[in-house]
Amino acid sequence: MGLAVEIYRAARAVADERGGGTLESVTVAVGELAAVEPDLLEFAWRGVVEGSEDASACLVVDWRRARQACRTCGDVAERAEGSWLRLCPRCGEPLRVEGGDELDLRGVAFTAPESVSP
Amino acid sequence: MTEVDVRRKILADNASAAESLRESFRASSTLVVNLISSPGSGKTTLLEATVRALKGRLRLGAIDGDIATERDADRLRRAGIPARQILTGGACHLDARQIASALESEGDRLAALDVLFIENVGNLICPTAYDLGEDFKVALLSVAEGDDKPFKYPGIFARAAITVVTKADLLPHVDFDIAAVCDQVASLNPSARFLVTSARTGEGMDTWIAHLEEALARKRAEAPVPAGARV
């Protein structure tokens, strides 16, 4: 819920810095390692925008797979249970996270006040 | 319709507030420890025992996050340290702006501490994502919660510098495989420290206190030299 509030606050700021308007959609990149469940985030988003001027705005979650690499074995494509394991399944060395931990705001679409239908 | 491409972290505002906090904690050489766990795992009880062990040796203080009631801060004040309760009114985590605001309103009472404990809202998920300017996070897991939690809630166990198993005095009464939990934590976070404690019997408390004292010593060693002290 806290993240949904942060996303809304950040998206609103993007629109307001450009003259304001009604949010249509907000796109976020969420990595597998960010410990965020996309369905729950979208559910929370509905709760945040409900009753506001942006009640119809949808949240688009761009889901990113975890990318981890082992210094010894090179890229590690396969992931064991949960994908969170930080040890290489082949040699047991710690893995380096190269992607999939994003929690980024990527896009905001909004309708400017003058173009909102009466 | 206007479409804007954005490249910013969702938690950028929080990160910026956390960085300001970190800078001020660095200047005062205050060690800041962010305790995260599910409700009832024993965060306040661990802190009460910590106060008993360190009282008179270090200046301690606490910020407590809860949805409702001042109970945790009341307990810590009774234990003898300044404590500020933040009531989140339903939010399941603390954020850096709340910490900054709490410190500002407490003024001198939470200033110039050796160690500031932040007792987060009881929750293994949401608090994980919020940087509070702390030196490190500590995850608590009581033996009554079950030994599968690190894999079920990997976010916090992957990020916590120390995992503290609590209520070890209950081990004879529950099925809790300490070695299995230790293995899970090690695979999620190879550099994490792992402690088994009981605030009731005192088991593991010496090690916990030693970790805090080592971390404080490291922080002081890294502190910037005050301008007036330079030759």
Task: State the main characteristics.
heterodimer, A: 118 residues, alpha+beta, 3-stranded antiparallel β-sheet, 23% helix, B: 231 residues, alpha/beta, Rossmann fold, 7-stranded parallel β-sheet, 8 strands, globular
Class derived from helix and strand content of chain B: alpha/beta
Radius of gyration of chain A: 18 Å
Quaternary status: heterodimer
Largest interface: A-B, 36 and 35 residues
> What is the succession of H and E elements of chain B?
EHEHEHEHEEHHEHEH
Measured on Cα atoms, how large is the radius of gyration of chain B?
18 Å
Helix content of chain B: 25-40%
Neighbour order of strands in the largest sheet of chain B: 4-3-5-2-6-7-8
Query: What is the CATH class designation of chain B?
Result: Alpha Beta
Strand content range of chain A: 25-35%
Largest sheet of chain A: 3 strands, mixed
Q: How many β-strand stretches of chain B?
A: 8
The dominant shape of chain A is elongated
Residue windows where pLDDT falls under 50 for at least 5 positions of chain A: none
Task: Give me the CATH architecture of chain B, please.
Answer: 3-Layer(aba) Sandwich
Explain what you see.
The complex is a heterodimer of chains A (118) and B (231). Chain A has helices spanning 2-16, 38-49, and strands at residues 22-31, 58-64, 67-70, 74-76, 95-99, 103-111. Chain A is α+β, with helices and mostly antiparallel strands. In chain A, a hairpin with a 3-residue loop joins strand 3 (67-70) and strand 4. The radius of gyration of chain A is 18 Å and the shape is elongated. In chain A, 35% of the residues are buried. Chain B has 231 residues and is of the alpha/beta class. Chain B has a seven-stranded parallel sheet, with helices on both faces. The radius of gyration of chain B is 18 Å and the shape is globular. The mean pLDDT of chain B is 94. The interface between A and B is large, with 36 and 35 residues.
